[in-house]
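## retry 2 of 3
previous attempt timed out at serialization; input unchanged, resubmitting
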Amino acid sequence: MTRAIGYCRVSTAEQGESGAGLEAQEAVIRSEAAHRGWDLVGIYTDVASGKSLRRRDNLALVLGKLRDHEAEVLIVAKLDRLSRSILDFAGLLETAKSQGWSIIVLDLGVDMTTTNGELIANIMMALAQWERKLIGDRTKAGLKAIQARGTKLGRRSNVSEETLLMIRALRGSGLSWQKVADALTREGVPSAQGGVWHGATVRKLHG
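## retry succeeded, writing output
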């Protein structure tokens, strides 16, 4: 029998609303598992902001169980309960595919256990790869333009000059402050505090 794990996320505000948001997510997850005849081995919940992956310990636990083949399927009610962006979600899809487990996102129609659902997942991964390459091309072009102008950027805080150049290039490509921050976080560029990048921080460094 296929083993499934459910994952839910609620914000602090939603948790205060008599658990309504959590109850609704759990209900659709249980219904889907029952409909498929799957063994739902557990439902894990995090209370965390959708804008940050911090304090999402149970998500890390769930991903570890799937990696170790303690279950074959991850079920979530809505995409925004699992991932903060399409790019991040595409990364999870790629991880699932490489490790041999499946993701089902009920509100999006992504179901890696079916032919049509896997097609949607593959399209999303391809689009995310295209966007990453596009951002990379814009970054390279922006850096060349900055270097051609002979622009020199002083070092601020603990952020390297290379990072400052990247911020200028990404911003110059038309990305919003938060999109620049997301790109830096996704690429593993260290921030001054060593954590996740934020739009306000990027804007301050840009000057």
